[in-house]
């Protein structure tokens, strides 16, 4: 199934599903289809990222951010991901992606997402995402977004795994003198 079709199906089902809090976990269920496969006959690496995007959108919609974003012209953007593949997901295998917010700072939300099959956790990904105001060309602070949906709270401390990831990410920064 084309990722855009999966996205539309998830958009509709998330809009009809019960609302979740920012501390909750959403579970997005799917199945590996033939066009998800690579030459090794398991889900291609690129498809994982599209599926994690779709699962993240489900979380945002169910948390109440979807209507807010459409109404204010806001756009979610991914700033980085770190993924660990544990084993390949097979043709027609069912899987579930769990999504939860670990923490946030003055710019970014940090998500933990896991793809699970009946055989265990197939992949783990940490995602760094933000929301941009397209009209004003600026980032909307996570605390402002949460306040707008009635979920204001103090930001949880940056977790150790996020701190290590951010430190490692510094190695990939483009230097001005390169």
Question: Could you explain how this protein is built, in words?
Answer:
The chain starts with a helix and ends in a 9-residue tail after the last helix. Strands 1, 2, 3, 4, 5 and 6 form a six-stranded antiparallel sheet that branches. The longest helix has 18 residues, at 45-62. It has helices spanning 3-16, 45-62, 65-72, 142-148, 160-169; strands at 26-31, 74-85, 94-104, 109-117, 120-133, 138-140. With 178 residues, it is α+β, with helices and mostly antiparallel strands. The radius of gyration is 17 Å and the shape is globular. The mean pLDDT is 92. It has one domain (3-172): Hotdog Thioesterase (Thiol Ester Dehydrase, Chain A). The protein contains five helices and six strands; from the N terminus they run H-E-H-H-E-E-E-E-E-H-H. Helix 1 packs parallel to helix 2 (45-62).
């Amino acid at each position: 199934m084309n990722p855009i079709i999966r996205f539309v199906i998830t958009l509709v089902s998330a809009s009809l599903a019960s609302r979740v809090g920012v501390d909750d976990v959403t579970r997005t269920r799917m199945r590996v289809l033939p066009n998800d496969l690579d030459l090794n006959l398991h889900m291609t690496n690129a498809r994982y990222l599209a599926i994690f995007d779709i699962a993240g959108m489900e979380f945002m919609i169910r948390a109440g951010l979807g209507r807010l974003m459409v109404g204010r012209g806001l756009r979610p953007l991914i700033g980085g991901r770190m993924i660990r593949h544990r084993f390949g997901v097979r043709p027609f295998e069912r899987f579930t992606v769990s999504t939860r917010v670990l923490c946030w700072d003055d710019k970014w939300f940090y998500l933990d997402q896991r793809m699970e099959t009946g055989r265990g956790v197939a992949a783990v990904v940490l995602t760094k995402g933000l929301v941009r105001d397209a009209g004003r060309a600026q980032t909307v602070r996570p605390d402002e977004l949460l306040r707008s949906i009635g979920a204001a709270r103090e930001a949880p401390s940056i977790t150790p795994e996020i701190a290590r990831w951010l430190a490692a990410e510094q190695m990939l920064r483009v230097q001005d003198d390169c």
